[in-house]
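Dear support,

I submitted the protein below through the web form. The confirmation email said the job was done, but the results page showed an empty box. After a refresh the structure appeared. I'm attaching both so you can tell me whether what I see now is the final result or a partial one.
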Amino acid sequence: MALTTEDLKARGYRTWGGEDPFEDLIAPFYFNEEGEDIKCAFISERKHCNGHGMLHGGLLMTFADFSMFAIARRELADGAAVTAGFNAEFISAGPQDALIEARGEVVRATRSLIFMRGTVFTGDTTILTFSGILKRIRKS
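What the results page shows now:
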């Protein structure tokens, strides 16, 4: 039996709640902040694949970007940020109809910048590694 988005919700995962319409349109992506770790996840579907039937690289980078903000959520508190830098390395192809997850860490946080790194994976297979910089901004 395949995992569903309802299963993710039952496990405590949630979305931004409509705050990012683009991410909701293409996925949706989920995060779970129970305990020390913040985990991110989505269920891959055909709409997420490229012409070769594997997960599209742009989707994976978007998920990694989403994950950076979820992982930095506690560091950001109620503040806002934008992506100032992003790097990704594709390690393996991502399959359709799978639970795709991400974990990472804040490497360093200053008054204006948050440095991140993480991994996107399914099961024991690493799909992508990423690093990035979030720039804190004032909410308008």
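Response: this is the final, complete result; the empty box was a page-load delay. The beta strands are 30-32, 39-43, 80-90, 99-109, 113-122, 125-137.
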